[in-house]
Amino acid sequence: MKLASETFFNNSAFSFSIFPYTFKSNESIHLHYHEFFELGYVMNGTGYHLYMDNIYPIKQGDVLLIEPGKLHGYQSDKTDPLYVCNVLFQLPFLKDIADIQRNLSCFSNPGFAPLLGDRENINERLALTGLEHLEISLLIKKMMNEYQGKEAEYQLLIKAKFIELFTLLRRSTRSHEVDVRSTEVKWMEEVCSYINMYYNDPLSLDKMSKVAGMSKSNFTSKFKQTIGKTFVEYRNEIRIKASCDLLRETDMKIINIANEVGFDDISHFIRTFKQLTRVTPSEYRKKHSQVWLN
């Protein structure tokens, strides 16, 4: 179902609207779309946001970003009302903002991505922390009061607060991205610790992806991005380092050393060893081994 823009914008010279909506328990707004931008801010309660082919749980402090033409809907929780404030605006309003604040590059494009930074998944909600929620909710209430009161220069004040709103959201997005990167680094460090401890186990990419709770493609990408090398490269380096210790400090047969550090194919072990050390295991032992007494 398409919602008509005329229903929400009664002033063609000021294509902006803001209003609250309270969902009763287990109430829904069916899938619909519209030709204007929408920012839905969850002031209180819990529920679900239906966006295209996905359903996302939402709660207090969540920011929902909907671009024109995107099919979406809402559903409140079965036992909990949902209070959402909707900020609606059209392209001419964004152009007015750009004229006011041209030094803010985030307003040079009408889409949401430049407003909040380079976001790959525009349908993904932004969850604000307690202090962020308090700051944003107060700002939205001020915008709502200006819009409802329509006192002198209210349009200019709304535009100023709109700039402040998206500046704060963009700042929050960057902060969350830093937190995510920090968490990813710590998690990958834990993965590396696991590999260091269990390098002689059959550590496949499939197994480590499951240990990390990621898809193989996501794990591969995050591991390389965080550690600077692929999972296989890192695992093999740990294994070859351990084999070097055994070659220097024991008289174990090379085939047994290969099995001990996690290689079940002697040819693969020798090939990998030479690739990393520039010599074969036998040459390494001859050069570095201790004198073994019978």
Automatic annotation (TrEMBL):
Pfam families: AraC_binding (PF02311), HTH_18 (PF12833)
Keywords for the protein's UniProt record, in alphabetical order: DNA-binding, Transcription, Transcription regulation
Superkingdom of the source species: Bacteria
PANTHER family noted in UniProt: ARAC-FAMILY TRANSCRIPTIONAL REGULATOR, HTH-TYPE TRANSCRIPTIONAL ACTIVATOR RHAS
Species of origin: Fictibacillus fluitans
Protein name: AraC family transcriptional regulator
Ranges where the HTH araC/xylS-type domain occurs: 189-287
Xref: InterPro entries: AraC-bd, Homeodomain-like_sf, HTH-like, HTH_AraC, HTH_AraC-typ_CS, RmlC-like_jellyroll, Tscrpt_reg_AraC-type_HTH
Nucleotidyltransferase in keyword set: no
SUPFAM superfamilies, per database record: Homeodomain-like (SSF46689), Regulatory protein AraC (SSF51215)
